[in-house]
Amino acid sequence: DTHVYAGDTYTTDDLWHAALVASSNKSIETLVTASGLSRQQFIMRMNGKARELGMTDTTFVDSTGLGDGNISSASDIAILLKDALAQEDIKDALLVKEWNLYSAERKKPHHMWNTDWLLLGWIPHTFPAVHGGKTGYTPSAGYNFAVELGDGVGHDIDVVILGAPAHEDRFTAAKAMAEWAYQNY
């Protein structure tokens, strides 16, 4: 990604936000290194957590999800989304619309937008609440998106889009699915 540069110094808070707001894979890799675990130990912990949550269709082979050996299902991603949004530090970061990443070496901020276009309003919608969402992409998996949306009166819906053919399609599909669900249930 174009957010984090080798040799630059960042705070863990900046790396956390770069990872969750702007989907910086280099930030994830740096945070894994900072955890004190080896990459293999970290991935084992990821797979252990997936099993603990009941994610039986999921296997991680790397910490970023970029490798083709990472597999999951929409139902497992929905489980992960629900657990992630129950963690205040994760939920808070996913709701940040933009972040300025600062490198001590560059001495200037690097602006990043959240990758969730529903949160930003770049895909117009009428949902009173976007509780948090996360994007993903690999050439073999396509464009992916998991989000929790609310109708403002306590009815929340989790939507998982896997394999959208184009970047914007994952957001328009999530919007359409949630609108249909709210209109019909």
Summarize the structure.
The chain is α+β, with helices and mostly antiparallel strands and 185 residues long.
What key attributes describe this structure?
globular; 185 residues; three-stranded antiparallel β-sheet; alpha+beta
What's the helix and strand layout?
Elements: H1 12-22, H2 25-34, H3 39-53, H4 74-85, H5 88-94, E1 98-103, E2 108-113, H6 117-120, E3 129-138, E4 142-150, E5 156-164, H7 169-184
Antiparallel strand pairs: 1-2, 3-4, 4-5
Helix pairs in contact: 1-2
Can you offer a commentary on this structure?
With 185 residues, the chain is α+β, with helices and mostly antiparallel strands. Helices cover 41% and strands 22% of the residues. The strands form two sheets. Strands 3-4-5 form a three-stranded antiparallel beta sheet, with helices on both faces. Strands 1-2 form a two-stranded antiparallel ribbon. The longest helix is centred in the last third of the chain and has 16 residues. The termini are far apart.
Question: Over all CA atoms, what is the radius of gyration?
Answer: 17 Å
- Label the overall shape: globular
Give the tally of β-strands.
5
Report on the biggest sheet.
3 strands, antiparallel
Low confidence ranges: none
Helix content: 40-55%
Largest sheet, spatial ordering of strands:
3-4-5
Give the helices and strands as they follow along the chain: HHHHHEEHEEEH
Distance between the termini: 40 Å
User: What fraction of the residues are assigned to beta strands by DSSP?
Assistant: 15-25%
In DSSP terms (H or I, runs of 4 or more residues), the helix count works out at 7
Whole-number average pLDDT?
A: 96
Question: Which structural class should the secondary elements be placed in?
Answer: alpha+beta
